Amino acid sequence: MSIDIRVPDIGDFKDVPVIEVFVKVGDTVKAEDPLISLESDKATMDVPAPQGGVVKAISVKVGDKVSEGSVIMQFDGVGAAPAEPAKPSISAPPSPVNAPAGKAEVRVPDIGDFKDVPVIEIFVKVGDTVKAEDPLISLESDKATMDVPAPLGGVVQEIRVQLGDKVSEGSVILALATGSAAAGAAAGGAPAGPPPAAAAVAAAATGTGGAIDEAAFALAYAGPAVRKLAREMNVDLGKVKGSGDHGRILRQDVEAFAKGGGAAAPAPRAAATVAGATGSGLGGIDLLPWPKVDFAKFGPIERKEQSRIKKISAANLHRNWVVIPHVTTHDEADITDLEQFRVQMNKELEKSGVKVSMLPFMMKAAVATLKKFPEFNASLDGDALVLKHYWHIGFAADTPNGLVVPVIRDVDKKTIPEIAKEMGDLAKLARDGKLKPDQMSGGTFTISSLGGIGGIYFTPIINAPEVSIMGVCKSYWKQHSSDGKNSSWRLTLPLSLSWDHRVIDGAAAARFNVHFANLLADMRRIMF
Ligand code: CAO
Q1: What is the pLDDT of residue 119?
Q2: Two domains, one topology: 108-258 and 311-527
Q3: Separation of 474 CA from ligand 1 center, angstroms?
Q4: Per the count of CB atoms within 10 A, which of 4, 134, 263, 504 is most buried?
Q5: Across the chain, what does the average pLDDT equal?
Q6: Which pLDDT score, from 0 to 100, does residue 203 have?
Q7: DSSP for 234-246?
Q8: pLDDT above 90 as % of the chain
Q9: DSSP string of 213-264?
């Protein structure tokens, strides 16, 4: 009997392009084997096989767009049950154990609303005998650390996760031999040495040079399945040249590299070198290795792990800083009249409970300026520029766990108090760690305001795939003169616009700032 295999619950993403198809007709696949890879503007996701079978037909190709429920292929299934999507969010919560006689696959149990939680510790190894409730692995979300206990006793036959892998409810973490099979495994039936993945590591180590450059690995353009394979084979993705579209690294590139036949990737390697992890060349310049210092030799120290949000934003900021040729243009806006108006409006709004800061006015001015200079409200897609006819403005929000960028949609259609209210709500959710992914996606331009804190100018890093970002610091009183003779004190707002020089030229950036500043100086101009 043949079974339709469909795209499972992929959150709010729709019409997501297929960027890789891992199988071909006639292939035999196991449950959880990756079938295809999808790439939205935020994430690359693999669609795993919901069950084992033989691929009978494939109904998608690279470039096709799919959404939840799209049929991607057909399996000649072994059983008669219709295939349920692999993700637990739309199938019935899977049992933590799926145990044919003598063998049990242990899955991540119900872990509440958490998804894609990184594995931070693996407590067992192949061949270990475990009792029910023994901890197997530890997971760390941004909220909590959770151990996954063994649901029954047995001997660990195979470990299917590695440190850093992300798992959700239902993900298979290891296989246990149970009952008489366990006795056999304990007596030598299970592989005595390292698991297959670890064996691959050992085999590949000579071909790959051992230690993985984590910064280069993070920057490499590859999907989760390929990243996992690279981890298993101890291949530093930063050194692999991708043969896919736009240099995407494919499975075969990793395999060829591990065998010694793959070419080194010059660009990501150089990027990684900037990160300071290796001592290789960057455009002919040999960088020194990153200094390794025993700080404790010089005084007391404390080692503190970065929060999950910080680690994620670090990888994003690093990629954006290395990949985008940034230039920052500074300017200033006279906001004397606008500040008076803002104070007046806040008095009038007092009863409504909404308090308006300078930021909603800046958002409105930004949209009007983006409409005049559309290439700032765009993204690069290969060599083409995608101009967006919607204006969703992100704002950098400082939270105890690190920097996040909530997005206010359709700023052009909202009033200043509406924007202020939504901004306040989103900033609170951000500080409480409760922002949902769709509240941080879809932005077309970002404003990073340090106005409530201080500073004069800074160089904000562009929030890819956007092409520009406005940084704003604290307004201050400054003496202005238009003729060198007469002067007056004006409330002055410092502006720092960073822009992607692949898309925007310096003259356009200067004009953008002048227009933005003129609108803030006199918001009536927004109507023109
Ligand atoms: N000049 C002078 N005062 C300013 C100002 C400016 N440019 N911008 C804001 N202020 C004032 C506000 O009016 C407010 O004053 P009162 O308390 O007297 O009313 C005070 O500063 C605090 O404002 P706020 O920060 O609460 O409000 P906001 O709308 O300006 O900003 C938010 C909201 C969420 C963006 C902000 O709280 C925040 O997190 N900023 C940090 C962003 C950041 O980290 N950027 C760096 C990214 S790169 O690492």
Answers
A1: 87
A2: no
A3: 8
A4: 504
A5: 82
A6: 28
A7: T--GGGBPP-SGG
A8: 48
A9: -HHHHHHS---HHHHHHHHHTT--GGGBPP-SGGG---HHHHHHHHTT-SPB
Residue the block writes with tokens 């924007």: 419
pLDDT tens for each residue of 131-175:
888 889 888 776 666 778 888 888 899 999 998 899 998 899 998
Q: Which of 321, 429, 331, 410 lies closest to 363, judged by CA?
A: 410
Distance 237 CA to ligand 1 centre (A): 40
Model-level pTM? 0.57
Token pair recorded at residue 318: 């690093």
Residue corresponding to tokens 């891992």? 22
Q: How many CB atoms lie within 10 A of CB 412?
A: 15
In 3D space, the residue among 152, 162, 154 whose CA is nearest the CA of residue 196 turns out to be 162
Which residues touch 141 (CB under 8 Å, ≥6 apart)? 114, 117, 308
Give residue-wise pLDDT tens across range 461-506: 999 999 999 999 999 999 999 999 999 999 999 999 999 999 999 9
Q: What is the 3-state secondary structure (H, E, C) of 16-55?
A: EEEEEECCCCCCEECCCCEEEEEECCCCEEEEECCCCEEE
CA distances from 135 to 129, 131, 156, 166, 476 (A): 12, 9, 12, 18, 57
Cα of 289 to ligand 1 centre, how many Å? 39
Which atom, in ligand 1's list, is nearest to the CA of 493? Answer: 7
Closest ligand 1 atom to residue 359 Cα is: 29
Beta partners for residue 412, in sequence order:
none
CA of 368 to the centre of ligand 1 (A): 22
**Residue 340 reports pLDDT greater than 90:** yes
Is beta strand 468-472 parallel, antiparallel or unpaired with respect to 445-449? parallel
Domain boundaries, the chain: 2-100, 108-258, 311-527
pLDDT class of 263 with cuts at 50, 70, 90: low
Fold of 311-527: Chloramphenicol Acetyltransferase (3.30.559)
Asked if pLDDT for residue 285 goes beyond 50, the answer is: yes
pLDDT above 60 (res 205): no
Atom of ligand 1 at shortest distance to CA of 448?
Answer: 45
Measuring from atom 8 of ligand 1, which residue has the nearest CA? 451
DSSP 282: E
- Please determine, for residue 87, whether its predicted confidence score (pLDDT) is greater than 50: no
For residue 234, the model assigns a pLDDT of: 83
The Cα–Cα gap between 310 and 404 comes to 9
Pairing status of strand 117-122 against strand 393-395: unpaired
CATH of 2-100, one of 3.40.50.12710, 3.30.470.30, 1.10.150.120, 2.40.50.100: 2.40.50.100
* 264 confidence band (pLDDT: 50, 70, 90): low
pLDDT for 399 equals 93
Contact residues of ligand 1, CB 6 A cut-off: 357-359, 395-398, 403, 427, 448-452, 460, 472, 474-475, 493
Question: Is 108-258 CATH 3.30.450.20?
Answer: no
What SS3 string covers 339-392? HHHHHHHHHHCHHHCCCCCHHHHHHHHHHHHHHHCHHHCEEEECCEEEECCCCC
